[in-house]
């Protein structure tokens, strides 16, 4: 077998190029090579900047945080309020302020983290990040929806997220376990429950004292504040008979129920979630009133 010559594999340089390579190997050629190289390097940045020019025209659009949902859904004046604000890009928040209050309370950021998107919802609706904050809300802060919170990041400010402020004398915090008649949480005749249909299969049951001739009005305020809860209310007699129920009201997915009592005695108001599985974003306010 004929041995393959290594040199025979060397690519043949076409004769017109060969002289110039020889030129570059010489000292004079070396100087010329460096001069050419410097020339090329001088041109490269201008070529690169020319290539970059279209990108400069497309300046990066600022992406400020988006606030979607406060948890819980209402604040109480005269107290230190701890609040989780869910949204998108909220981890970039450097500071926050309240509108509608002068001066704005000093807001402390406790934690910023990713947040699980609830099943059946989306990041655009329920957020995929959250920031936990704390601040003292002055006692003179007016009840209602005149205040809002704004998140400030290096990319700009979020749109204001309206906050509900309720008098401490009216607010009752939901307390678990309250999943059945035996565990029902007793409510005063007029109040607003601040609650959450938490993870797992949850139902919140409240015990109400009915008075003959009085009308009970129970209204859920949740979906219209950004909560993912689709609420349903059912009123039961002490014997378990259904006295009334409602899924959706004129306002949308929030339930509204009224019932005129024909006799004195306890009854049970059950709040449940429709269709969706309970989650950490199923927050609600339940306004209960009893009037002749
Ligand atoms: Ca419960
Ligand atoms: Ca509903």
In short:
With 292 residues, the chain is mainly beta. It contains three helices and 19 strands. The protein folds into two domains: 66-165, Sandwich (Immunoglobulin-like); 171-291, Jelly Rolls, CATH 2.60.120.380.
Morphology call: globular
Helix content: 10-25%
Name the CATH class of the largest domain. Answer: Mainly Beta
Based on secondary structure, the structural category is: mainly beta
**Ends: how far apart?**
115 Å
Radius of gyration: 34 Å
CATH topology grouping of the largest domain: Jelly Rolls
Q: Number of DSSP strands?
A: 19
Largest sheet: 5 strands, mixed
- How much strand? 35-45%
- Topology order in helix (H) and strand (E) letters: HHEEEEEHEEEEEEEEEEEEEE
Whole-number count of domains: 2
Q: Are any ligands bound, and if so which?
A: calcium ion
Residue stretches low in confidence (pLDDT < 50, at least 5 long) are 1-51
**How many distinct helices?**
3
| CATH architecture classification name of the largest domain | Sandwich
> What is the mean pLDDT?
84
What do these coordinates show?
- The termini are far apart.
- β7 and β8 form a beta hairpin.
- 15% of the residues lie in helices and 40% in strands.
- It folds into two domains: 66-165, Immunoglobulin-like (Sandwich); 171-291, Jelly Rolls (Sandwich), CATH 2.60.120.380.
- α1 crosses α2.
- Strands 2, 4, 7, 8 and 9 form a five-stranded mixed sheet that branches. A five-stranded mixed sheet has the order 10-12-19-14-17, with no helix packed on it.
- The chain has helices spanning 18-25, 27-57, 123-126, and strands at residues 66-71, 74-75, 79-88, 95-99, 108-114, 129-137, 144-153, 156-157, 161-165, 171-173, 185-186, 191-196, 204-210, 215-221, 231-237, 242-246, 256-260, 265-273, 283-291.
- The chain is mainly beta.
- The protein binds calcium ion (2 copies).
- The site of one calcium ion (CA) has 6 residues, from loops.
- One calcium ion (CA) binds at residues 230-232, 247-248, 253, 255, 274.
């Amino acid at each position: 077998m004929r041995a393959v010559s290594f040199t025979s594999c060397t690519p043949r340089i076409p004769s017109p190029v060969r002289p110039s390579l020889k030129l570059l190997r010489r000292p004079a050629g070396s100087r010329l090579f460096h001069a050419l190289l410097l020339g090329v390097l001088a041109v490269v940045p201008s070529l690169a900047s020319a290539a970059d020019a279209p990108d400069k025209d497309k300046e990066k659009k600022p992406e400020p945080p988006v606030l979607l949902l406060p948890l819980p859904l209402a604040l109480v004046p005269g107290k230190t309020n701890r609040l989780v604000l869910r949204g998108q890009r909220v981890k970039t928040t450097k500071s926050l302020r309240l509108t509608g209050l002068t001066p704005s309370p000093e807001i402390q950021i406790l934690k910023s983290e990713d947040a699980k998107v609830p099943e059946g919802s989306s990041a655009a609706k329920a957020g995929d990040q959250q920031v936990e904050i704390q601040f003292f809300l002055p006692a003179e802060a007016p009840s209602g929806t005149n205040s809002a919170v704004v998140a400030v990041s290096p990319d700009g400010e979020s749109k204001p997220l309206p906050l509900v402020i309720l008098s401490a004398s009216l607010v009752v915090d939901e307390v678990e376990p309250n999943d059945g008649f035996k565990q029902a949480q007793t409510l005063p005749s007029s109040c607003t429950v601040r609650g959450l249909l938490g993870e797992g299969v949850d139902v919140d049951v409240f015990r109400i004292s009915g008075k003959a001739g009085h009308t009970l009005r129970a209204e859920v305020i949740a979906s219209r504040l950004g909560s993912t809860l689709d609420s349903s209310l059912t009123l039961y007699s002490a014997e378990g008979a259904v006295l009334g129920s409602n899924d959706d009201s004129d306002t949308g997915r929030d339930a509204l129920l009224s019932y005129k009592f024909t006799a004195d005695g306890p009854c049970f108001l059950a709040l449940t979630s429709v269709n969706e599985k309970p989650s950490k974003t199923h927050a609600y306010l339940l306004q209960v009133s009893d009037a002749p």
